[in-house]
Amino acid sequence: MAIGSLARRKTTTILSSRYLYSTSKYSFSLSRNYSSGSDENDVVVIGGGPGGYVAAIKAAQLGLKTTCIEKRGTLGGTCLNVGCIPSKALLHSSHMYHEAQHSFASHGVKFSSVEVDLPAMMGQKDKAVANLTRGIEGLFKKNKVNYVKGYGKFLSPSEVSVDTVEGGNTVVKGKNIIIATGSDVKSLPGLTIDEKRIVSSTGALALTEVPKKLVVIGAGYIGLEMGSVWGRLGSEVTVVEFGPDIVPAMDGEVRKQFQRSLEKQKMKFMLKTKVVSVETVGNGVKLTLEPAAGGDQTTLEADVVLVSAGRIPFTSGLGLDKIGVETDKAGRILVNERFVTNVPGVHAIGDVIPGPMLAHKAEEDGVACVEFIAGKEGHVDYDLVPGVVYTHPEVASVGKTEEQVKALGVDYRVGKFPFLANSRAKAIDDAEGIVKVLAEKETDKILGVHIMSPNAGELIHEAVLALHYGASSEDIARTCHAHPTMSEALKEAAMATYDKPIHI
């Protein structure tokens, strides 16, 4: 057993070149207590999203005079305002409706009819967002973070000009400035997003009626999640993907099971398909398609088209060129292991730098960056950032896929356990899914864990902790898990990795 490894604590910062898909976003600028030009901050954060607001709070907790600039007028960035949080609210609400339609009767809960009140559903989503954004403002007050509402741009490496939401301008000075402006929707050539018929994820979260036919361009996290929402509410959903697979970063075996699950939910897939054009026609939208490898064109009609082809760093209007901050070909800001750009005193975190474009990764960046500024040690291991698709079932993973392990030439073992053999899953009649564990053959050290199940996003964190401390599959297998719980499936998969499971 690798129990001794659990006592080790990592203190160095590790940055890797592995990138994942994301749902986090940007922020920028604007609000309440204005900094005058004569006030110099220890830290100025441009952007109040998951990376920015967390960095600001952590800096203040470490005793640094801190100002956060945010353009929206509300904190939380894309994630909280038009991303992670509202999408999860709608995923939950739509799942409740779908369960009421299809599952309640088998549990002895019967009623004559069930219907969707879309305005009420949207209202619940908006209430959750409003409460959380106010909560962050409360944390700013508690920690004495100065909050400026406005669009910030560099005047110099130590000065940010802010056009405030109230129509004025102020200059915020800082010894250290952190760029935390997140990412924006990646569009397609010749395509205009109007947020009515041709929508981004933002528009998909605010539709006023359930579209009869919804076409999703892109089979990544966001596209599948939003497709699930509207599919449950009654839309005919077709996903068009240029590549050969959905969610390409996912473990291949799990991905295939996941796609079959979505297809059982009546989601249709057109893989290896290129979108040539998208145009509004009357009250609908017409897409012209062709095979990715070339061939005859076809057309597809829809009421709404969701463009979900990925995200790009958001640095527009920031003035990076004015102060000479270097970026790569993808527009990402280049930083060293301490999140410092080539310009001394200017730092960058989150979606604007290389690494997984995920809200929780941005938070970790923010904490580590500020710890370095304060003279402490920070730590982010991008290879151990969990990824979750919040459909039903959910899919969550951490570490390496089987394809990646093979490519590295590592001898490994695989342990799998289906939720059909899990007592809790069977008891609640929600047993679709699997746990898959990959471990190095010689040492039994866990290399990756992949889970498809209800609440996989919660179950994955035992595996995240195990990988952080170099645990073996036997470590998990010999750890007592409460019965009956879904987490026992991970224990059994770990048993299958180094020896044999009990319940299958």
UniProtKB/TrEMBL annotation:
GO biological process: 2-oxoglutarate metabolic process
Listed SUPFAM superfamilies: FAD/NAD(P)-binding domain, FAD/NAD-linked reductases, dimerisation (C-terminal) domain
Domain Pyridine nucleotide-disulphide oxidoreductase dimerisation: 385-494
One annotated Gene Ontology cellular component of this protein: mitochondrion
GO MF annotation terms: dihydrolipoyl dehydrogenase (NADH) activity; flavin adenine dinucleotide binding
Plastid is among the record's keywords: no
Catalyzed reactions: N(6)-[(R)-dihydrolipoyl]-L-lysyl-[protein] + NAD(+) = N(6)-[(R)-lipoyl]-L-lysyl-[protein] + NADH + H(+)
Cofactor binding comment, as recorded: Binds 1 FAD per subunit.
Disulfide linkage: 79-84
Note: The active site is a redox-active disulfide bond.
Similarity comment: Belongs to the class-I pyridine nucleotide-disulfide oxidoreductase family.
Protein name: Dihydrolipoyl dehydrogenase
Organism: Nicotiana tabacum
Lineage of origin: Eukaryota, Viridiplantae, Streptophyta, Embryophyta, Tracheophyta
